[in-house]
Amino acid sequence: MRASGIGLIGLTLALSSVGGCEKLKECAAAACESEIQANGTVSGMFRSVDSISAAVTETKVALEAEVRAMCEELGIADCSGDLGALVASVNGELNARFAFAASISVNYEPAKCEASVEVALEATASCDAEFDPGSAELSCEGSCTGGCSGECTGELSCEVEAPSIACSGSCEGSCNLEAGGTCTGTCNGDCSGACSLSNAAGECRGECDGTCTGSCEMTVAASCEGTCSGKCLVEQGSVDCTAEASCRGSCDLSCSGSCEGSVTPPSASVDCQASAKAEASASIHCTPPNVTIEFEFDGAAGAEGEAQLTAAIGTIKAHLGGIVGALAKMELLVDATAELQGSVEGGFSVELDAELLACIAPVAIEAVEKLVAAAGDASVSVEASVSVTACAGTQSCG
Question: Does a structural domain hold residue 294?
Answer without folding.
Answer: no
